[in-house]
Amino acid sequence: MIFQNELLKSLEIHSDKIAIENGESQISYSELFTITNKITSFLLKQNLEPETVIGLKFNDRQSSIYAIIGAMNARCVIVPIDGSLPEKRIQTIAEELNLKFVITSKECPKIESLAINNFFIEDILNNEINSIDIQYPIFNSNDSIYIYFTSGSTGKPKGIIGKNCSLLQFLQWEIDTFKIDTNTKVSQFISPYFDAFLRDIFTPLLAGGTI
C-alpha cells in the first residue's frame, strides 16, 4: 500500500466532512483537496525529479499542512525549516541537502544567501491552476517522503529520512490502536519541526477525522 494513494482516497471519500478546524475557520476535505492539488499541480509543472527535496518554511501551521500534502502528492521529499533558527544553521541544513526549492510565505524572510528558488504559497493558491485533472506521479512504497533534522544537542544536527511505507504503517497502527474514525478530532500541538507533527496531521486525515 502507498501512503499518497490512501490519503487521496480519503480526501475524496470524506469530501463533505471537516478536515481542519482552526478557530472559527473550517476547511472541508473537498476544500483541502482543491487547495493541496494546486500545490501539487504547480510542483509537477516544474518538472522536478522524483524525490526532489522541498524545503517548507512557514509561520502558519495551516499553510504548513497544505504544503506538506501538496509536496508529498507531487512525489517530493519535504523538509520543514524553522525560520527562528540562526541563519548559519539554516544554511548548514540547506547545504547538506543541496536544497534548491523552498515553499514559503511572503510573510517569512527569504533564504537570501543561497541559490534557492522561493515559491510563495500565496502566488500558487491565487493562480488559476487546474487542480482537478492531475496526473499524479507513480508513487513507490520505498520512496523517501520526509526529512527531519535532530536538535544537534550532541553534535552536528543529523537529517532523519522517513520512508513512504514506514509512515503509512505507523499511521495505520495508530488508527487501529486508538480506534480513530470520522468522529475523531485530533488537537495539533506538536511543533512542525518534529516528525510527530505528521502523526497529528495524517492520523485523522486518513480516517476521515478532523485536525
3D architecture notes:
With 211 residues, this protein is α/β, with parallel strands linked by helices. The protein is 39% helix and 18% strand. It contains seven helices and eight strands, in the order H-E-E-H-E-H-E-H-E-E-H-E-E-H-H. Strands 4-3-5-6 form a four-stranded parallel sheet. A two-stranded antiparallel sheet has the order 1-2. Strands 7-8 form a two-stranded antiparallel ribbon. Helix 6 packs across helix 7. The radius of gyration is 16 Å and the shape is globular.
Give the count of helical stretches. Answer: 7
Can you tell me the residue ranges where pLDDT is under 50 for at least 5 consecutive residues?
A: none
Number of strands: 8
Major sheet: 4 strands, parallel
Shape: globular
Average pLDDT for all residues:
92
Compute the CA-based radius of gyration: 16 Å
Q: Output the structural class.
A: alpha/beta
Key terms for this structure?
alpha/beta, 211 residues, 7 helices, globular, 8 strands, single chain, four-stranded parallel beta sheet
Element layout with pairings:
Blueprint: H1 3-13, E1 18-22, E2 25-28, H2 29-44, E3 53-57, H3 61-72, E4 77-80, H4 87-97, E5 101-104, E6 117-120, H5 121-126, E7 144-149, E8 159-163, H6 164-177, H7 196-207
Parallel strand pairs: 3-4, 3-5, 5-6
Antiparallel strand pairs: 1-2, 7-8
Summarize the structure.
With 211 residues, the chain is of the alpha/beta class. It has 7 helices and 8 strands, in the order αββαβαβαββαββαα.
